[in-house]
Write a structure and sequence with these properties.
The complex is a heterotrimer of chains A (196), B (406) and C (546).
Chain A (H helix, E strand, L loop, with lengths): L45 H13 L7 H12 L4 H11 L3 H10 L11 E6 L2 H5 L2 H12 L12 E6 L11 E3 L2 E3 L4 H9 L3
Parallel strand pairs in A: 1-2
Antiparallel strand pairs in A: 1-3, 3-4
Helix pairs in contact in A: 2-3, 3-4
Chain B lengths: L17 H6 L4 H6 L4 H10 L12 H5 L11 E6 L8 H8 L1 H15 L3 E6 L4 H16 L8 E6 L9 H8 L23 E5 H13 L1 H7 L7 E8 L5 E6 L4 H7 L9 E5 L8 E2 L9 H6 L8 E6 L4 H15 L5 H19 L6 H12 L7 H15 L1 H5 L5
Parallel strand pairs in B: 1-2, 1-4, 2-3, 5-9
Antiparallel strand pairs in B: 5-6, 7-8, 7-9
Helix pairs in contact in B: 3-6, 5-6, 5-7, 6-9, 9-10, 13-14, 13-16, 14-15, 14-16, 15-16
Chain C lengths: L2 E4 L2 E4 L6 H7 L23 E4 L6 E2 L10 E3 L3 H15 L16 H10 L16 E3 L3 E3 L9 H8 L6 E4 L6 E4 L12 H5 L5 E3 L11 E7 L8 E7 L11 E6 L12 H4 L15 E4 L2 E4 L2 H14 L5 E4 L6 H14 L3 E3 L23 H6 L6 H9 L5 E5 L10 H10 L2 E6 L4 H5 L2 E4 L8 E4 L4 E5 L12 H11 L9 H11 L8 H4 L4 E2 L21
Helix pairs in contact in C: 2-3, 7-13, 8-13, 8-14, 10-11
Classes of the chains: A alpha+beta (196), B alpha/beta (406), C alpha+beta (546).
Chain lengths: 196, 406, 546
C-alpha cells in the first residue's frame, strides 16, 4: 500500500517555499470546525448524472466536461475528497491519477473540508500597494486564524490569493461567489459579521 | 480624445440585456456580416490593424488567416476570458456590462473562420461575470442568434493564471491541467481537441462588431500606423481615480495617468507598470511613450493586457518585485524545467534580499538566471516573469543593494 | 526525403524524422531527458536545444522535424550555454543522493554534467523536499525528490500500458510524480518505468542496493519467460562476489528489437532469473545414493547414462525433452535419439496451472523454445510416455528440466511412474521433486551461462550470448549429450554451440541457410514465416487523437 502523497501533516515539513503565507493553495494546514456534510456515499443524483451527460455532450471530447463536473462535485459534496475523485474518474473513464492531477493543479478545488464561507484576500501588486497586508492582518486578528485555516465554528476558511483582477477597487477579496471591493477594516468587520 | 467605442454601452441601465443592446444598435454588425463572404470579413479585420488585446498583440486578421485552407473538419473559436494578468480588469467589465458585444463579435468571427462551435473560457473566480454572460448567451439562444449555425459553450476555469496562455487554456478546456502545448503545431493548425482553433481575447472580439459596422479604415484611423482602434486601459495603483479608461491606442502613458487623476500617495511618480504585471517597469521619465504594441516594444517593455499600475515614490520596488516573484512561483505550471525551477529559485532569492539576508551575488544571479531562461520555455509565461525580474533590478538597483548587507 | 546538414555533415532522412534521431544517425548524440522514441513528444526538459540557421533562438530538437536544406548546429557556444543553463535548472532542487542512489554511473544528470558542465553551483537556498523511498507496487521504488519531472513514466503508463496510474500533481516547483493516493502500480510492465527514468527517481526494488553498476558486465540475450523471446541484456556481477550475496545475475534489461518487443519487457520475464543463482541450483553430476545424492565426476556420469541408454531396447527408453532447451541442445538430443532408434520422445508436459498471456507481450506459453522443439521433431505424446512408465513398459526415462510431480497431472501418478522406471535420468538447472527421484542427475548450464538460440512463437530464431560462467560443474545440454554420444560410439565433432546450429541448418528445412551471422542480434525468421512485428501497446489502441 503506497503512502498517500497528498497528506497534510504527514508531508515533509521543510517546504520549498520561504516562510510566508502559502498563497491560497488548496491544502490548508489544520482545519477545525469542519462544515462539510459527512457524506458516506459518493454519488450524484439521477438529475445530476443527466447534467453530467449533458455537459459531456457539449464537448468534442467528453473529457472537456471534467472541470465543470468537478465544480458540480464540489458544490454537491462540499469538497473534493479522494473518493470523490475516484467517483468522477469513473464518470469519465479516466484513471483516478489523472483526475487527481487536475484537482491538485487548480486552486479552486478544495481537497480538504472548508468552512461554510471562503474569504480569499488578494495580495498581488495593486492590492499590495493599497494595503492588502494590513487588511489580511486585520482579518486574521478578527477570525483568530492563519491563512489556510478555518475558524473553530466552521464558518470561515481564510485564503490569501493572487490577482483577482479588481485592481481598481483595491484592496479587495473574494467572499464565496462575490467580490468585496474597496476594503477597509470597518467594511471587513461588517462583511465577516454577515457570514453565518 | 477618441470616441468611446468599447465602453459605449457601459452606463446604460441593464446594458447586459439583449433588449438594451439591440436598442443601442447591437447585432446590426452581425446582420451586415451575414451578407459578407468569410474571407471579406477577415480582410476587413486585417485592414483595421486590430491587434490582440489579451497580451501578445498579434494582428488578429492575420491570426484568422492561419486556418488551413480546404480544411473540412471542425474549426473552433475559443474566447480567452481567463483574465488574470495583475493590474488588468477590463474583460470583467465587458463580460458584466456588455456581454452581447462579445457574443456578436463571436458570431462575426465564427463566420469569418467558418466555425460552428465556440467556447468561452471564463476564469473560475469570475462567478458574477460568468452568470451575467451565461444569461446573455441564453437570451441569444432564445432569440435565435445562437443555435443557428453557431453554438457557444461557456466553460468555467478553476483557478490557474496559466490558463490565460492560449494553449494552456486549450489544455484546460480539454479537461486536463492547464499545461501549454508545445508549438508547433500552432492552434490554428491543431488546437482544441486536435482541430484548427482560433483563440482571441474578450476585448479583441468586442472590437469586431464596430469594425464591421463602421469600417476598417475608421477603426485603423483611431489608432497608430501599426495598430488600429481604441482599447480599455485598466489603471490602478497609486492614482487618484483607479478605473478602466478607453482611449486611442496612441495615447501616451503620461496622458493616461492624467486621465486617471494623476499620482496619489506622495503625488510624485516613481515608476509605472505599463502592460500588466509581466511588462518591464518604466521609470518616471519614460512615460511619454505611446501605449500601443510597437510604442512600448521600442521602449523595452510591452503593452500586454494594458494593465497600468502606477507607483509613487513611497513604493518599495523590492517589495513590489517580491509580490510578483511570489506570483510567478505560484502560477508556474511546472511543465518545463527552466520556468518551474527558476521561478521558485528567484522567489527564494528575492525573499532573502527583501528580508535583509541577501548575498552580494544574489542580484547578479537573479539577473543571470532570468536572462538564461528567457526564450527557452514552452510558453511565454517565463518571458513575462523575467520582465519584472530584470527591469525592477536593473532600473532600481540601488534600492535593492541598500537591502543587502543590512 | 529531406536532406539536411548537422554539424557540417550532410544526411538524408525520412520525412518526419526529428532532429534528435537525425543527429543520432550521424553519431551525434543530442542530450535530452524527456524525449523517448517509443513515447509521445513532451518537449518539457528543454535540454535538447540546438541552433538552426535562420531561427533566431535555439530550438528543441525533439519537436523539430528535419526539413530540406536545414542547417543544424548542436555544439555552438550558444547551444552549450543554453544546455548548461538547462542542466543548472535541473540540478538546483535535486538532492545530492549519489552516494546512496542506485542510478549512479548510469544517471543522465551525472553523465551530462560531467561531460558538458562542471560549473560551480550557486543555489544556496534550501531545496524542495518530496517523498523518498515510496514503493510503487512490488517492483518499483519512487524517490520523488530525485525526479526531474520529465514525465516519461507518466507517458509510459498512458501510452504503453494504458493504465494511467502515474500523474504529476500540483504545479510549479511543488510538482511531484506519484500514484493516486492509496493505489499501487500493479501491472505486468511496471518495471519498464525504471529503465526509462533518466535518474534515480524510479529504481528497481529487486536491484536496490545490490551492486554498483560499474561492476556489471552485460551480454545480449533473450528472455526465457515466455515464447515471445523479448530481447534483453543480462547484467552480471562477476567482479564483486561479496555483493548481492554472491549472486551473479544482477538484473535483466530490455534490448530494443523493433519486431519483437520494441523497448519493453514484462515483469514476469524481467525477474525470471532468480533460479540461476538460487540455492536449488544443481552444480555437479550425482547418482542417487541411500542417504541422498552422491556427487560423481562427469566421466562416470556420462558412462552411466550411456550405459543406461544403450542397455535397453529402444522401445523401453523414452525422453521427455523440454521447450526450455536451446535449438542446439534439441538437435543434439535428436541425434542421440536417431542413433539409438529411440522413438518415444515428447516435450509437451502440461503445466500445473495453465498460464495466461496478456494483451501485450506476455504469451500464455511460458517456455522459450516450443517452436524449436516442434520444428526439430521432438513432439510426441508426453502423457503416453508417463502411462508407459506407470505401466512398467519403460526401463529408462530421461527427463530434461520438467518436474513431473508439479505438472498438470496427478503427482501420485508421476511418482508412481518414476518409481517403476529402472533408470531415471534428470538433466536440468535446478533440483526439483523429479531430480530427487532420479538415479542420475546431470546438471545443466543456465541460459545466461552459455550461448545458443531459441525459436520464438512466430518462428524467429534469436541468439543469446554467454553472460557468466556455468555454475560449478554444470554443462550445456548439447555438451553433455555430445559426451554421451561419444560414449555410445557415435562421437560428434561438435565442440561449440555453433557447430550444432550448423547441423540444424543442414538437417531441418525451416532453418535452412541460417547461420549465427545471419541471425545476428535481431534474429531471423524461419523459412516461410512472417513476423507481425512488435504488438501495438494497449495504451495506443482506440486512442482519441489528442
Amino acid at each position: 500500500m503506497t503512502e498517500p502523497l497528498n497528506t497534510g501533516s504527514g508531508a515533509p515539513r521543510a517546504s520549498n517555499r520561504p516562510p510566508t503565507e502559502r498563497a491560497g493553495l488548496t491544502s490548508p494546514g489544520t482545519t477545525t470546525g469542519l462544515a462539510a456534510p459527512a457524506t458516506t456515499v459518493i454519488a450524484f443524483s439521477g438529475a445530476q448524472l443527466e447534467e453530467v451527460q449533458r455537459l459531456q455532450s457539449l464537448y468534442p471530447d467528453p473529457r472537456g466536461a471534467l472541470l465543470p463536473v468537478l465544480h458540480l462535485a464540489q458544490e454537491t459534496f462540499g469538497w473534493i475528497s479522494l473518493p470523490v475523485e475516484e467517483y468522477v474518474a469513473g464518470l469519465f473513464a479516466l484513471s483516478p491519477a489523472h483526475v487527481h492531477e487536475v484537482v491538485t493543479f487548480y486552486t479552486l478545488y478544495f481537497q480538504q473540508p472548508t468552512g461554510r464561507h471562503i474569504v480569499a484576500v488578494c495580495h498581488n501588486l495593486s492590492c499590495h500597494l493599497a494595503g492588502s497586508r494590513d487588511i489580511l492582518a486585520h482579518v486574521k486578528r478578527r477570525l483568530g486564524i492563519e491563512v489556510g485555516q478555518t475558524t473553530d465554528d466552521g464558518r470561515i476558511t481564510l485564503q490569501s490569493v493572487e490577482c483577482l483582477c479588481a485592481c481598481e477597487a483595491a484592496p479587495m477579496a473574494q467572499v464565496d461567489d462575490r467580490y468585496e471591493l474597496n476594503l477597509t477594516p470597518a467594511r471587513v468587520d461588517r462583511i465577516l459579521e454577515g457570514l453565518r | 480624445m477618441a470616441e468611446t467605442v468599447l465602453m459605449r454601452n457601459f452606463d446604460r441601465a441593464n446594458s447586459h440585456t439583449l433588449d438594451v443592446y439591440r436598442a443601442a444598435g447591437g447585432y446590426g454588425a452581425w446582420d451586415k456580416a451575414g451578407t459578407m463572404e468569410p474571407a471579406a470579413i477577415t480582410e476587413e479585420v486585417k485592414k483595421s490593424n486590430l491587434r490582440g488585446l489579451g497580451g501578445a498583440g498579434f494582428p488578429t486578421g492575420m491570426k484568422w488567416s492561419f486556418i488551413p485552407k480546404g480544411h473540412t473538419g471542425p474549426v473552433y473559436l475559443v474566447v480567452n476570458a481567463d483574465e488574470g494578468e495583475p493590474g488588468t480588469f477590463k474583460d470583467r467589465y465587458l463580460l458584466e456590462r456588455d456581454p452581447h458585444a462579445l457574443i456578436e463579435g463571436m458570431l462575426i468571427t465564427a463566420r469569418a473562420i467558418r466555425s460552428a462551435l465556440g467556447f468561452v473560457y471564463v476564469r473560475g473566480e469570475y462567478v458574477q461575470p460568468w452568470r451575467v454572460f451565461s444569461a446573455a448567451v441564453k437570451e441569444a439562444y432564445a432569440a435565435g442568434l445562437l443555435g443557428n449555425g453557431f453554438d457557444i459553450v461557456v466553460h468555467r476555469g478553476a483557478g490557474a493564471y496559466i490558463c490565460g496562455e492560449e494553449t494552456g487554456l486549450l489544455s484546460s478546456l480539454e479537461g486536463k491541467k492547464g499545461w501549454p502545448k508545445i508549438k508547433p503545431p500552432f492552434p490554428a493548425i491543431k488546437g482544441a481537441f486536435g482541430q484548427p482553433t482560433i483563440v482571441n481575447n474578450v476585448e479583441t472580439l468586442a472590437c469586431v462588431p464596430p469594425i464591421i459596422s463602421r469600417g476598417a479604415e475608421w477603426f485603423a484611423g483611431l489608432g497608430t500606423k501599426t495598430q488600429g482602434g481604441t482599447r480599455m486601459y485598466s489603471v490602478s495603483g497609486r492614482v487618484k481615480r483607479p478605473a478602466v479608461y478607453e482611449a486611442s491606442v496612441s495615447i501616451t502613458l503620461r496622458h493616461l495617468i492624467e486621465r486617471a487623476g494623476g499620482v496619489s500617495g506622495t503625488g510624485r511618480l516613481k515608476a509605472v507598470v505599463p502592460g500588466g504585471g509581466s511588462a518591464a517597469i518604466l521609470t518616471a521619465d519614460e512615460i511619454d511613450v505611446t501605449m500601443d504594441v510597437d510604442g512600448l516594444k521600442v521602449a523595452g517593455s510591452m503593452i500586454g493586457s494594458a494593465g497600468v499600475i502606477v507607483m509613487d515614490e513611497s513604493v518599495s520596488i523590492p517589495e513590489a518585485l517580491l509580490v510578483l516573484a511570489r506570483f510567478y512561483a505560484h502560477e508556474s505550471c511546472g511543465q518545463c524545467t527552466p520556468c518551474r525551477e527558476s521561478t521558485g529559485w528567484i522567489y527564494k532569492m528575492v525573499h532573502r534580499v527583501v528580508d535583509g539576508h541577501g548575498h552580494k551575488d544574489d542580484l547578479d544571479t537573479i539577473l543571470d538566471v532570468a536572462k538564461r531562461g528567457g526564450g527557452t520555455t514552452i510558453c511565454a509565461f517565463y518571458d513575462g516573469a523575467i520582465g519584472p525580474y530584470i527591469s525592477y533590478i536593473e532600473k532600481f538597483r540601488p534600492e535593492f543593494e541598500a537591502l543587502i548587507g543590512t | 526525403m529531406p536532406k539536411l546538414t548537422i554539424d557540417g555533415k550532410e544526411i538524408e532522412v525520412e520525412a518526419g524524422t526529428n532532429l534528435i534521431e537525425a543527429a543520432r544517425r550521424l553519431g551525434v548524440e543530442v542530450p535530452h531527458y524527456c524525449y523517448h522514441a517509443g513515447l509521445s513528444i513532451a518537449g518539457q526538459c528543454r535540454l535538447c536545444m540546438v541552433d538552426i540557421e535562420k531561427t533566431p533562438r535555439p530550438t528543441i530538437a525533439c519537436n523539430t522535424q528535419a526539413a530540406d536544406g536545414m542547417v543544424v548546429h548542436t555544439d555552438t557556444e550558444r547551444v552549450r550555454q543554453t544546455r548548461q543553463s538547462m542542466m543548472e535548472f535541473h540540478l538546483i532542487n535535486h538532492p545530492l543522493d549519489c552516494p546512496v542512489c542506485d542510478q549512479a554511473r548510469e544517471c543522465w544528470l551525472q553523465i551530462y554534467y560531467m561531460k558538458d558542465d562542471l560549473y560551480d553551483p550557486r543555489m544556496t537556498d534550501e531545496e524542495g523536499h518530496r517523498h523518498k523511498a515510496v514503493p510503487l507496487g512490488p517492483h518499483v521504488m519512487l524517490d520523488a525528490e530525485r525526479c526531474i519531472l520529465c514525465s516519461r513514466c507518466v507517458r509510459f503508463c498512458d501510452e504503453i500500458t494504458g493504465g494511467g496510474e502515474l500523474g504529476i500533481f500540483h504545479r510549479g516547483d511543488h510538482s511531484e510524480i506519484g500514484l493516486f493516493p492509496g493505489r499501487d502500480l500493479v501491472d505486468n510492465y511496471s518495471a519498464n518505468v525504471v529503465d526509462i527514468c533518466p535518474v534515480g527517481a524510479l529504481t528497481d526494488r529487486d536491484f536496490r542496493f545490490q551492486v554498483r553498476v560499474w561492476y556489471l558486465d552485460t551480454a545480449k540475450s533473450i528472455c526465457t519467460g515466455c515464447a515471445r523471446g523479448c530481447n534483453i541484456e543480462v547484467h552480471v556481477n562477476r567482479r564483486r562476489p561479496h555483493h548481492a550475496e554472491g549472486r551473479r545475475v544482477a538484473r535483466l534489461k530490455p534490448r530494443f528489437n523493433a519486431d519483437v518487443n520494441a523497448w519493453w519487457i514484462c515483469d514476469v520475464g524481467r525477474y525470471h532469473f532468480g533460479f540461476v543463482d538460487g540455492p536449488s541450483r544443481l552444480t555437479a553430476p550425482a547418482r542417487r545414493g541411500p542417504g541422498g545424492p552422491v556427487e560423481i565426476g562427469w566421466d562416470d556420469a556420462v558412462a552411466a547414462v550411456a550405459e543406461a541408454v544403450r542397455r535397453h531396447p529402444p522401445e523401453e527408453v523414452a525422453v521427455l525433452a523440454s521447450p526450455r532447451m536451446a535449438n542446439e541442445d534439441l538437435v543434439a538430443l535428436r541425434r542421440l535419439l536417431e542413433v539409438q532408434g529411440i522413438r518415444q520422445v515428447a516435450f509437451d508436459v502440461p503445466p500445473a496451472a495453465p498460464a495466461e498471456g496478456d494483451d501485450f507481450l506476455l504469451r500464455a506459453d511460458r517456455t522459450p523454445n516450443r517452436r524449436g522443439a516442434e520444428l526439430i521433431g521432438l513432439g510426441g505424446d508426453a502423457a503416453g510416455i508417463l502411462a508407459a512408465a506407470r505401466g512398467g513398459r519403460l526401463r529408462c526415462l530421461w527427463v530434461f528440466h520438467h518436474d513431473l510431480l508439479a505438472a498438470g497431472w496427478p503427482s501420485s501418478e508421476a511418482a508412481e511412474a518414476l518409481g517403476r522406471v529402472e533408470t531415471v535420468i534428470f538433466t536440468g538447472t535446478n533440483a526439483n521433486a523429479t531430480s530427487d527421484r532420479a538415479h542420475w542427475v546431470l546438471p545443466a548450464a543456465a541460459w545466461v551461462e552459455r550461448e545458443g538460440t531459441f525459436t520464438n512463437f512466430e518462428g524467429r530464431v534469436q541468439r543469446f550470448r554467454t553472460a557468466a560462467e556455468p555454475l560449478g560443474g554444470a554443462l550445456t545440454e548439447w555438451d553433455l549429450l555430445g559426451r554421451v554420444l561419444g560414449a555410445i560410439g557415435h562421437p560428434t565433432a561438435a565442440t561449440r554451440a555453433e557447430h550444432w546450429f550448423r547441423d540444424l541448418a543442414r538437417t531441418v528445412g525451416a532453418f535452412a541457410d541460417m547461420s549465427y551471422q545471419s541471425v545476428g542480434d535481431t534474429g531471423q525468421m524461419i523459412a516461410g514465416a512472417t513476423s507481425a512485428g512488435a504488438p501495438v501497446p494497449p495504451g495506443r489502441r482506440a486512442r482519441i487523437p489528442a
